[in-house]
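Submission checklist for the structure archive. All mandatory fields must be present; incomplete records are returned to the submitter.

[x] Identifier: Alpha/beta-Hydrolases superfamily protein
[x] Organism: Perilla frutescens var. hirtella
[x] Residue count: 390
[x] Sequence attached
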Amino acid sequence: MWRRGAAAEGQGRNKKKTEMEMEHQIQHPYAFNVSGPRNVPSINWRDLINSSWKDGNYKRTVMACFIQAVYLLELDRQENRTKENALSPKWWTPFKYKLVEALIDERDGSIFGAILEWDRAAALQDLVVVKPSGAPRAVLALRGTLLKTPTMRRDIEDDLRFLAWESLKGSVRFSIGLKALRSISAKYGSSNVCIAGHSLGAGFALQVGKALAKEGVYVEAHLFNPPSVSLASSLKTVGERAGVMWRKVKSMLPLSSENAKAVVVDDDDDGNEGARATKQWMPHLYVNNSDYICCYYSDQGGAEVVGGGKENAKAVNLSWGGGSGSGGGGGRLFVAVKGKQKFLEAHGLEQWWSDDLELEMALNHSKLISRQLESLYRLPPPQQLPAKTS
């Protein structure tokens, strides 16, 4: 009799503990129902007729949520959460995707990225018999810096790597990310794959995407608050200014007709022809002018920001690298503006699915992205791999 009573009491305690854990999960500040997007349409059979994925605002929201899921995968790991009380799955399941692989940094065992694939079984439960038009078959999402002890050291190490060299190729995360992106592109076709990243993760996404583009494989890229400040770029800017001054000095010196012709030839041979021929990769950049980490994308190169509007704002193509009239290619720059904001708010990921988000359209070219993609522009046109059908 005592044993039965003790067992029943133990079961009651376990049930109460589980209920408390579930309640804590629901009320957690990072829970999807607490801080996730509002008024996002649920995928259903109607998407077979008019796909939500054709709306750029919907796609931006989903990509940001997938990156948030990667942040939470690492926090779930650090806080020893189980499948029952994990926070991260709620950030991909509403969009009918599933986790197929977590990218692990072998230096500290932390999760810095994830591959999410279209979940056909979950979609069938809502009578979505085929993948809606515009929805990627697979997404590689990469998180940024987490100021939490277990992974902070490695995150900051890569931050400093970018700050010093404007290159992340020396990081183990670069090689792992490139291998993962190459793998899913070969499996599904590049037209069915996206890469997305926030902050440091956006830096990796940009450089991994560029590395794959050099192989002739072009995937859709969504970069939130990508880092734009580095010592390397500052030194390049100083060098460019010095070059401009030297050319001005040379223009004042008397030149023979032969030397003048030579100068003209040298000045034109700077890779712009390659830019016009190979400019096919078009990353989407989302920046905030109050975020000093990414703001130079919109003003360092003199990119003009005009127009405004809430979620229905559209970005125009930027002819980066080739100049006006060079045709098809470049990138798309979205600028979030709310007046002066505190850094943490301006750099945060949550703003990109916020209901009151206001976007402005960037026109003209961006000198910074032109420089970062310069090596692409100078390559001969690669042989594009045939894209698999969805």
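[x] Structure attached
Curator remark: The longest strand covers residues 97-105. Residues 38 and 355 are 7 Å apart (CA to CA).
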